[in-house]
Amino acid sequence: MSTIKDVAEAAGVSIATVSRALHGQPRVSEATRRRVLTVAADLRYVASPSAAGLATGLTHAIGVVAPFVNRWFFAAIVHSAEERLRRAGYDLLLYSLGTEAEERRRAFSGALLRKRVDGVLVLGLHPAEDEVAALSAAGGPVAIVGKDVPGWASVRIDDRAAAGCAVRHLLDLGHRRIGFLGGETDDPLGSTLPGDRRAGYHAELSGAGLPADPALEAVGGFTVRGGYAAAERLLQLAHPPTAIFAASDEMAIGAVQAIRRAGLRVPLDVSVVGLDDHEMAEVMDLTTVAQPVGAQGELAAEMILTALAEPGRPLPAVTVPTGLVVRGTTSRPTRRS
Amino acid sequence: MSTIKDVAEAAGVSIATVSRALHGQPRVSEATRRRVLTVAADLRYVASPSAAGLATGLTHAIGVVAPFVNRWFFAAIVHSAEERLRRAGYDLLLYSLGTEAEERRRAFSGALLRKRVDGVLVLGLHPAEDEVAALSAAGGPVAIVGKDVPGWASVRIDDRAAAGCAVRHLLDLGHRRIGFLGGETDDPLGSTLPGDRRAGYHAELSGAGLPADPALEAVGGFTVRGGYAAAERLLQLAHPPTAIFAASDEMAIGAVQAIRRAGLRVPLDVSVVGLDDHEMAEVMDLTTVAQPVGAQGELAAEMILTALAEPGRPLPAVTVPTGLVVRGTTSRPTRRS
DNA sequence: CTGAAAGCGCTTACAG
DNA sequence: CTGAAAGCGCTTACAG
């Protein structure tokens, strides 16, 4: 593996000149630059990131911290962020933490990230105040997807409004007994998302003058399987709902299967509306409230890059719009509720 | 951000002693070691990976190269590999290349990975011979999932056999007109997987004395949407199949939806069998040939770690078993084919 | 058991 | 326009 010294010798210049030529800096004659570039290519020279990082204090890497990568939303965000970062010449270090408190603590303390990345992208984890301070101190700008955090750049949707939009659609269709599939009361990730979507459901119901019935709420854990099981439970009620709002499409997909397996029809017997516009939603013909996922990943990456390029600038906090997509899993209720 | 020098001064020792103490090396008295550890913790000292990397030539990072991360199989592999690597103290650098030839070339030439990682994990990309040589030369052991590559560690399933198993199940049920959903003839990733699964389908048919009918094969591109569209096409044939083997569960899920949308019943009118045991397969009640995904990711990670720890050892090539999981999307044919 | 020193491969003022 | 040299923060023989 060739070093800058090899290139310098082969090109007959000093290593300082090689460095300058390779970085497209001024004060290098066109002739030398070309010679250096040619020699470097011939030697398949690639600068050592370790050495460059030590000299500059910059790693040209961004850390992405998420609870999982194998969940549609996170995977989609990572994919789009990676693409944007790579185009800018940044590497992506992936920290998939799971739900372990210890791992989470290490990541947010900065022990994992310090001196290792130039910036951080946080997904699906909502840090406490001391965690915000610690991670900020670990160095570099931080962008977060899904929540508005003072001091960090952020991109998110309005979860309350999105949930309200889904429920309003069911109300408009004439449903009065509307079930809810959400997360656990005590979210293991400390995320406010489950609570916000639930609040949107409650607000919309009460806006329509309907009482909240705790029996109509079930925990689906934001997974397909969890949504299936939760919907099963709602269907067994003496007075089951005529419609279900699932706080994520994955739960909604599970719910649709459970309803069918129970011998009922969707939407004739039970309507289902999700939230996300998951990649499978269209094929499943699922009515849902769509959020732009790829755009959020790209935007968050962009925010980090901008913060890196212009350190003075205030960090943006953007809320991206959501919109109802009516497909085939919702209709007017056919039985009285 | 504190450096090793800060720790050394605060502990009243040399930086060499700090380094040794922190690495748990011998020839440091228990008393000094404890003092150093305490001071380092107080100062929230974290060694600079750049500096350590420059001194040792080791980055303690593994590169993961895949065409996508937002596809179930790749996301699941990345997730399990990440967990194993993190436990061993390695970082994971993600290179999600998409299908662009240029990106692929750069990654396999080693330009992206050289001096940056200690080893590489390749997913879903099947390199040509010169690419194997180039990436191997870029340094460090390479493990690949999905194909057997001489010179690299590998873990995979027997794609032909798995596909054959799925088709045999349909034959055993009495189906004679069996459709196939696969990839494009000219796979953009250069993967042999689509061809292998198709070959398994053909082999099983001809073993049963059935002729191959090109009209029964459709391209689904290994996506849900693609499977949906491909199944639609097969259903419009003058003489449609009574069963469909989809070479991936994602296509199978799409096919099930397409069949239902066409007003037909699964499995009564058309049986469907997939391959993967996707996380949604159970809820979808999909009959499939299961492959252990998390295990493959962990095993591949393990192989890299072993190769790093014991450079002499020959690199293993493991084929993991698959198995038919009969669920509700397959049954005996009810019409004559 | 401990320290002084060399060296890893870059970048970047500073001279010229 | 170009080069010599310092310095980034570690690790690791080599002495003692």
TrEMBL record, chains A, B:
<dbReference type="InterPro" id="IPR010982">
    <property type="entry name" value="Lambda_DNA-bd_dom_sf"/>
</dbReference>
<keyword id="KW-0805">Transcription regulation</keyword>
<keyword id="KW-0804">Transcription</keyword>
<dbReference type="InterPro" id="IPR028082">
    <property type="entry name" value="Peripla_BP_I"/>
</dbReference>
<dbReference type="InterPro" id="IPR046335">
    <property type="entry name" value="LacI/GalR-like_sensor"/>
</dbReference>
<dbReference type="GO" id="GO:0000976">
    <property type="term" value="F:transcription cis-regulatory region binding"/>
</dbReference>
<keyword id="KW-0238">DNA-binding</keyword>
<protein>
    <submittedName>
        <fullName>LacI family transcriptional regulator</fullName>
    </submittedName>
</protein>
<feature type="domain" description="HTH lacI-type">
    <location>
        <begin position="2"/>
        <end position="56"/>
    </location>
</feature>
<dbReference type="Pfam" id="PF00356">
    <property type="entry name" value="LacI"/>
</dbReference>
<dbReference type="Pfam" id="PF13377">
    <property type="entry name" value="Peripla_BP_3"/>
</dbReference>
<dbReference type="GO" id="GO:0003700">
    <property type="term" value="F:DNA-binding transcription factor activity"/>
</dbReference>
<dbReference type="InterPro" id="IPR000843">
    <property type="entry name" value="HTH_LacI"/>
</dbReference>
